[in-house]
Amino acid sequence: MKGISLLEQAGRYGAIVSLLATSSPKAPLNLFSYQRRLPPLDTLPHTVPFSVENDKQQQQPYANSINVLYTNDIDVAFRWAQKNLWTDGTNGSSSSSPKVLGWDMESSPRLPWLEDKYRSDTYFGPATIQLSTVSESLVLQIAQDQYGPIYDQTVLPEFIHDILNDHNIIKTGVGIDEDMIELYRWCRDLEVAEKHLSWATNGSGDPSSATPPLRRFDIGGIGSSKPGGTIGLARLVAGVLGVRIPKSSKLARSHWSAAPLRIKEVDYAARDAWAAAAILHRLNGLDPSRFSPGSICQRLLDAQNEEKLRSIRDVSDRAVDRRAAKLEWKTLRPQRDAEGNENPVRTETERARFEFLTETIRALAPMQPISYEIEESLGLKIP
Predict the structure, then answer these.
(1) 20 to 30 A Cα–Cα from 99, which one of 7, 166, 335, 376?
(2) Calpha distance 26→91 (Å, rounded)
(3) What 8-state DSSP symbol labels residue 166?
(4) Whole-angstrom Cα distance, residue 130 to residue 268?
(5) Does residue 295 or residue 207 have the better pLDDT?
């Protein structure tokens, strides 16, 4: 019962669904699961035109509280996935109909100003994965202090690999490729078997491959006024849903592996994943020809055929190559004196190399989110 008393003293979750204890070769691990309702969100006046005509319903309760499950127990998390994603009771195949899943991840950063407070068993790196539908959220602890990665053999629970591999589940968020790259590198560095990384390697080097790349959709291009522009999550939520989600740089830098997390940390993490699902839920209600799961799948297929949707491994490798090219490019960048003359003067070989690196950096630029206009067509203005 030690875990319960610690939670009570810390003022953390009052409703405990289950709290079990087990042991591991590397450290004892307390399994925990909590459920709660996220607090309602503040509504923003005069930002979103809700009406029976354009929504086919009165305002969706996007400001209302939603259910969140926070756990490090793989069995509890798997049951959540079965209930909310695999409604037919099977895992690894959602159904023939695509569906949207809000996705987010939090990692424990190593902050220089806290260096003297870290211990030898303090963990840094990916710590939680958040999954969400428009009404249910899951915050899954995948690593924690004094233990490290919780799931030894596959690093990620098997059902998470199944979700990633399921092409009928559209993983969505702002800047989702960054999370996926970090997750892939984490698994790779921990020597996860190649068969468990198919979600990251499928489609590598061959856009016409029979096994397409990870199906993910970056919502950051929705409402952007210029091609390649990206809108942040808080602005999208305000413009599309008419509510305000709490954003805090301090919370974003939380030590996410200090499990169990505080209530405000779990709420913050869950809302980010929920927001992505809720945004597409509302846009689908307004314009299914562009924002239904099937329509999004078609846009992603088009992007794949145009070589604009690559495997996570390819995206990761290209990012490494681009960074190396930029570092060398900086050393060859011309320096100019007060009169604008190049000083020192570069050799022809150096100039040619500089031009080559410039083109390489441009060619290796990351994929931009698909742009969608929503102000004129739907009356939604991003603040």
Answers:
(1) 376
(2) 30
(3) -
(4) 10
(5) 295
